[in-house]
Amino acid sequence: MGSVVRPLEVFTKTAYRNSCVWLGTCTALSGERPCWQWIWNGADHRIANDNGAVAMEHRVRAAELNCPTIITGNINSLGELTKKFYREKQCHLAQETDECRTDLIACLELLHHAKAAPPNIVLGGLSGRLDHTLATLHSLVQAHSLASGSTPSSPIYVLDGDNLMFCLAQGAHRFHLDRAHLTDVCGIVPITQTETRVTTRGFRWNLDNKPVSFGTLISTSNELASDEISVTNTAPVIITFELLSSITGLDTPPKH
């Protein structure tokens, strides 16, 4: 039967008790949406990297954003007043010692160890420097190894001002979509160096066990043709959906 994926749950009441990461690679000038505030404030687990903690400090002081529960990354780069402020807020500061790991994978490991319930949502990580965006994609592929046992982990959803994106593990997947939040433009992009074949249903241009790779074929600028779609992939792929620029009700939290 495969997995059932509901990516638009990030905008519904089920997401009001989520687990959230705020990456400092994205600021209000490069992709933040008003919904970030209630998604972040409603999270049971809130983890920020060091740059994110600096960027949000004045908003935490103003009680606009809830304090992170954990800050990780290069804690030594934080000013003493910033560290003192967050410690007084009972925020745990976790110095990352492995320079080969991205901030995002460090944040996701902390969520994993905390047994954080899905949906897991990353705010930021797609705007600004291209190498940071590529690091976000790399971290999403790595995050699949955090799942224990044979049950695949739930997708980790990444949001910026224009996109809802996630890495889809190898397997067969059915999607239930609320297209009222989407433009219908979407993409399926291979991300590993493993041969990747994809079969889709419910898209304007479907694939039938088609090999996809950079240099041959990638399915960008595709379009949704149904609220019910399916993707079967032999290796991890990146799925992207374009968000509407204005979505009724998105700026306010859902009702419990």
Which descriptors would you attach to this protein?
256 residues; alpha/beta; Rossmann fold; 10-stranded mixed β-sheet; 15 strands; 30% strand; Thi_PPkinase
The strands making up the biggest β-sheet line up spatially as: 5-4-3-2-6-7-8-15-10-13
CATH homologous superfamily caption = Thiamin pyrophosphokinase, catalytic domain
What structural class do you assign from the helix and strand content?
alpha/beta
The portion of residues assigned to helices is 10-25%
What's the Cα radius of gyration?
18 Å
Q: Give the C-level CATH assignment.
A: Alpha Beta
| Poorly predicted ranges | none
How is this structure best described in words?
There is one protein chain. By secondary structure, this protein is an alpha/beta fold. It has a single domain, classed as Rossmann fold (3-Layer(aba) Sandwich). Helix content is 21%, strand content 30%. Helix 4 packs parallel to helix 5 (130-143). It is globular, with a radius of gyration of 18 Å.
Q: What's the layout of helices and strands?
A:
Layout: E1 3-5, E2 19-22, H1 35-41, E3 45-49, H2 50-61, E4 70-73, H3 80-88, E5 92-95, H4 103-113, E6 120-123, H5 130-143, E7 156-159, E8 163-168, E9 171-176, E10 182-190, E11 196-201, E12 210-212, E13 219-223, E14 228-233, E15 237-243
Parallel strand pairs: 1-9, 2-3, 2-6, 3-4, 4-5, 6-7
Antiparallel strand pairs: 7-8, 8-15, 9-14, 10-13, 10-15, 11-12, 11-14
Helix pairs in contact: 4-5
